[in-house]
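Let us work through a complete example step by step.
Step 1: write down the sequence.
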Amino acid sequence: MLTHRKQAVLAEIIPSGPSTMAGLHQLGLVLAGVLLLALSAKVVVPMWPVPMTLGTLAVLMIGAVYGPRLGIITIAAYLFCGALGLDVFAGTSIAENGLAYMMGPTGGYLVGYGLAVLVLGFAARAGWDRSMPRMALALLVGNIAIYLPGVLWLGVLYGWDQPILQWGLMPFVLGDALKLCLATSVLTLAWRICENLSHERGLGDEESP
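Step 2: predict the structure and record it as tokens.
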């Protein structure tokens, strides 16, 4: 179970300057997150049995790095950009964007983005991003949170007599497993680096006259 004790997330240990600049700092993080999501959705990596995009990796990483509140704000801003017709989703053109695209086959996965960022955000708040086994478990649950509404929505659109799992889940399992391994390694390594730097700064302060 997730502990109730709140831990800092990675985004909160980035120096933000004076407290009066905190709002601008968070706005910058949201804009950076939206840009990362849009760019990641367009990156296509050759993979068997289907090419792999990095959109879900970006979602999970943002949840863990930003925490639940800033993470869900970032996802909401990203979806808002998509609803306006901006070309921020995977494999789309200007004509295919907007609300019509969001109500199509990928609509359920977009809902799952919000669920996943909350899962990873609360896990990070509980300190799970500092432990490789716990981070791997949280990322797995977050990935399930993306695919559950995605597959359910495909069933609603096309009918449960269709091979829904073969369409919306099975082709992506291998690529997602690789992304989860990458995210687990990067996030836990980031915390180790931050903790080492903090420890070194503390030693420096103790030694200074």
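Step 3: interpret the result. The chain has eight helices and two strands.
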